[in-house]
C-alpha cells in the first residue's frame, strides 16, 4: 500500500470509505488497476458526499412501498444512456433472469443516467445529449418497450440523483451508497443490490470479488456479455455473476448518434475533472433545469405515506 500513502489526504479518505475500491487496495491492486476499474478521484470529500446523498431521487414503485418485505432486492445500472435503447432494457431483463435462476426475487430495476460532466466528455458526438434529453429519451424507451407483462414494466424506475444533482463526476459506488441511504431514511428498509454492467466494463468485477465477508450477502456484481467483448476467462465467486451468450437488440448508442447525424455543435473543450476552485454548492446542487422533479418525487412519496396510513387506520377500525 505504499502508493496509497502517497495519495492526497482527501483521496485517501474517500478510498478508505469506499468498501468496494478499498477492498482492491487491501488485496494488492495498483492505483492503475483502480483507474482501469473506473475509480474517479473527484473534488468532493467523503463527508460532503455523505451529506449530499440525502435528496429523495428514486421513484419507488407502489408494490415496493407497500411490500411487507424488510429487505428489497434491486438491480442497478449506471451509464450515459446517450441515447437509451432497447438493448439497455434487455440487458437488465437478462440480469433479472440470471439472478432469479439463483433463487433471488427482483423487486426493482433502477437505471441511473450519468451526469452531464461525465457524458459530455466521452466523445464529440455525445455533447448534444444533455441530461434533459437523455432522461426524456430513456422514459420514452421504457414506455414503448414490449414488456411481457405490466408487472415487468413496473419494476423499472429512473434515479435522478446522479444526472440532476451531481455537477461533478462520481463513482458508480456513490450511486449504490446513495440508493441505500434513501431506502434507509425514507422507507426503513434494507436493500440487496446487484450492480449490472456489460462485459466491456469487465474490470468492475474487481470491486466485488474482495468485499468484506460481512457484506457478501448485500452487494453483487453481474457482468453481461456484450457483442465484441466476449467473456473468455472469469472466476465465479459468491458475489460475482456472469451471463454469457446473450442475444440483445442490435441497437447501439454510438450507432444511433451517427444515424441521427447531430453535428450542430462546435468542438469544445470539456473539463474532465472537477475544478479544484469549485465550491461544494457547484458540485452538489439540484440542476435548475428541473426545479419540479425533486418536488414531484417527494410529493409522490408523501402521498403514498398518507394512503398507507389511511389503509392502516381503516384496518384497525374494522
Sheet with most strands: 6 strands, parallel
Structure summary, number of beta strands: 6
Here the CATH topology equals Rossmann fold
What is the domain tally? 1
Q: What is the 3D form?
A: globular
Beta fraction of the residues?
Answer: 5-15%
Average pLDDT score: 77
What structural category arises from helix and sheet content? alpha/beta
Strand order in space, largest sheet: 3-2-1-4-5-6
Give start-end ranges of low-pLDDT stretches: 261-291, 312-318
Number of helices: 16
The first-level CATH class name? Alpha Beta
Mind sketching the topology for me?
Layout: H1 2-5, H2 9-16, H3 19-26, H4 31-36, H5 46-51, H6 62-65, E1 71-79, H7 86-100, E2 108-113, H8 116-122, H9 131-144, H10 150-153, E3 156-158, H11 161-165, H12 172-187, E4 190-198, H13 206-209, E5 219-224, E6 240-243, H14 253-260, H15 280-283, H16 293-317
Task: Characterise this structure.
The protein is of the alpha/beta class and 318 residues long. The chain is 43% helix and 12% strand. Strands 3-2-1-4-5-6 form a six-stranded parallel sheet, with helices on both faces. The radius of gyration is 20 Å and the shape is globular. The N and C termini lie far apart (64 Å). Residues 261-291 and 312-318 have low confidence and may be disordered.
